[in-house]
Amino acid sequence: MLSLGLVLPSAAVLVGAAPASADGTTLYVDKKNAACSDTDAAAGTQGIPYCSIQAAALAVQAGQTVEVAYGSYSGTVTVTHSGTPGHPIVFKGDAGWENGSVLDLDTQPSADGGSGFVLQGVHDVTLRGFRYGAGAVTVKDSSDISVLHSFSAMGSFLVQGASHNVTLSGLFMYAGGSNSGVRVEGGATDTTITGNVVDSPSNFDTTGISLTDAPDSVVVANTVSQICDTGIALSGDSHGATIENNVVSGSNCQGAADGLLSISAASTTGSTVDYNLLGPTSAGDPYSWAGTTYATVAAFQAASQQGAHDLYANADLRTVGARAWEPADPSPAIDSGSADAPGEPARDVYGDLRAVQDPLVKDIDATSAPVDRGAVEAQNPYTFDFNGPATADDPADPLAYTVRAQTTSNPWKTSVTSYAFYFDGSTLTTTSAQPQATYRYPLSMAGQVAYPKVYAVLPDGEQIPTTDSEGLMDGGEYTPIATPAPLSASFPAAPASASAPQTESLKVQGNTYLASATVDPGDGTGTLAAAVPARSTTATAVHHYAEPGSYTATATVTDVYGRSTTVKQTVTVGDAFVPVRPTRLLDTRNGTGVAKGKLGARKALRLKIAGAGGLPSGGVTAVTLNVTVTGSSSGGWLAAYPDGAPVPSTSNLNFTSGQTVPNQVTVSVGSDGYVDLYNAFGTTDVVADVQGYFTDVKAAADQGYYQPLTPVRVMDTRKGTGGVPEAKIGPGGTDTLRLNLAKYPGVTAVVLNVTAADADSAGYAVVYPGNTTRPSASDLNFGKGQISPNLVTVPVAPDGTVKFTNGYGHVDLIADLEGYYTTATSAAAFVPLTPVRIFDTRSGTGVRKGAVGAASYVAVHIAGSHGVPTNALAVATNLTAALPTVDTTVTAWPAPWTKAPQTSTLNPARGTTRPNAAFIPIGSGGNVDFYNQSGRVDLVGDLAGYFGR
């Protein structure tokens, strides 16, 4: 039935008064409610509604409302109870007409074809908001009855017998077969039929509105369309009628033999016909008056003295969106009706105001504001529509949809002041100066189809809806609102140092836009509120840690949908490195830094670091020194540690009598700004050259953090690697290594393992920035024919160059790059630790006991032990090779070791003990491998600190 194309009324007409509360004045009917009952003592309440309308009709009293929920209710409802003046009984269909496209109640006729509602012998009753499948409403011998805002597919609205003062208004009905849309008969008086639409979509030979022996009726502002017989017929004695402002159109079938408007002889008495628009029809005449037909308005006017303002023309009715039967510019129905017609409704059948003036049509009567003829008032033809589908534009905000519209027609040159958007799930109006708005649907609507509505707001406040309501569509298909993935969050990367060392920018990333976030930095200082920019998936909290180390930071984020989740991250904070041009701080041979004289056995010297050699007096937490022992009276070892701390059980240098041995030492500085150097046996001279320092305050512009690398050979004079000559460096000779700065962004200094090989005499090498003069300090001391390595940290010139100068004789120099310091705040900060021995193959400490064989390695687990966190990137170690059985090469390498490395860390000769510092990247599983090339050798490793972020 509804597939016939009838366009149904908008919510403005059908909603009516607000639903009554459950206060005893409302009875509820809802057959779909599993708790419904027609017999329960509590039946009719919201909790236990009636199952049938009839049960409610038998119980309802004057002043009460029967509210019927949407559903299909079969059978006839017989109303036997009456209301009283001012307190009618009201039967109301479900008021939920928000979509304006479906009616609420489908009452089906009984098996005998009777009406949906029968009102017999009752008074003061109102029916509104129902849809009737076949039988509609029969009113018999009843008074003060109103049938409003309803729809009938094929059944008639009947008024019979001694009925009086019955109003039929705002009805949509199909007339077909023997069923007129409206039939009033049998002596019914004072019937008002106003503002209704009667249509015959299949051109049935039927009458639209039929009155037989029904005096004093008012038939005003109705639209009767496509009728093959008479549109409005008064037969028998239906005198005293008023027939005005109607539109009656014929069709291309045979009908209208008795006139589109037919009034019997007895019905002409006291009746008024005016302001009607008839035609056209392809057969018959527009009028039948007292048994005579008239083919023209003029002829009818002359014979009847009626119809002074009647017109015979095509009404040019159109459908605009949800509105059908609307006269289109310049229809003769527009602004040509009488606003003073008896029973003229204040609003048209769609609930829109009458008397809307069309600026493109000249009014017939300039003294008043005329209405349009028919049931539908032509509204402002300004139209606009959805401009493409409404879509969720942002994956980070999947419930936020942008609805766009555009003007499609504006013949009245209407000025639009704003646009009003109404979204499912919101009781608020979104107002925009532009025809688009974005709305975030509540999480509860995920998976549902939404139907946003858009209105253009005119200067007088009138709201014009879009031509249609497409809903959220994609490719022409209705698309449910997206269902967001569960909220997830992560620390997307290691935190970056902010304004100063140990001041961290803790950033957490969500998969949807965040509303708020808190971060607990994990150091016991409490929770911080993180900054969340508008429409952002990230939140950031900046925090200064008082002490270097590793902490577990916890972030709790809440997204714009109210969902929360928690994520954790290990944060390592430490000190930044400031490289310096190599400068001598200590030389016991000449009294530099301390009193002149060898360092005795079991003695320690205090070396001033803070404020010495151009270093700042404050903020120096650790220092990198090249320490050299020379002129030793016996074999022994040297340990470096912060002043005031006990002598550690670890060593930094191991040497034999008379041997000159250098080694790089990275050691924490005591609170007084000093470090101590302890000599275990005999006497020895000690030399120390500073290569840089670590700080916990904002220092020089070139302060940086460490970026560990898998060791790579960058220079070898034996092969010409690194662009240097393929030849030994002679006395006072210099080779220059040029690094590719693009590979090392932000580099301030490099960490090189520099090895001297095949020297023809004892000597030393100096490594320094390519843009400076040679310093007086040395980085590597070697003997004739020895292979001697040392770790060197050296600043890099702005052009990427590092110079290597040989002091005496001829020597090959090899450089392996272990990492570099960079101004990039995402690199690793240094955390010094109390020196600790992490493995010793001689005793089985930390590894299996026994020397490492040829082409073999020992794996040492470091991350997650000895104070090194699992997220550490590299460790600062001192590696000692003891008593190899043959000359060999030892390489520290991130796990896993798969083939012999092409770089070296130590090159101990047979039967010697040789140390060297190494900054080693931590490999998979938190392990570091130590590889021995030849023979057998014992290896010892001491931990000085780690690098992490």
TrEMBL record:
The cross-references to PROSITE patterns, in alphabetical order and at most eight, read: PKD
Enumerate the SMART domains for this protein: PbH1
**Pfam families reported for this sequence:** Beta_helix (PF13229), PKD_4 (PF18911)
**UniProt keyword annotation of Signal present:** yes
Q: Which stretches make up the PKD domain?
A: 522-573
InterPro entries per UniProt? Beta_helix (IPR039448), Ig-like_fold (IPR013783), PbH1 (IPR006626), Pectin_lyas_fold (IPR012334), Pectin_lyase_fold/virulence (IPR011050), PKD_dom (IPR000601), PKD_dom_sf (IPR035986)
Residue ranges, annotated region (Disordered): 326-346
Key word Signal present: yes
- Signal peptide start and end residues: 1-22
Question: What does the UniProt keyword field contain?
Answer: Signal
Domain of life (superkingdom): Bacteria
| Entry protein name | PKD domain-containing protein
Please tell me the species this chain comes from.
Streptacidiphilus cavernicola
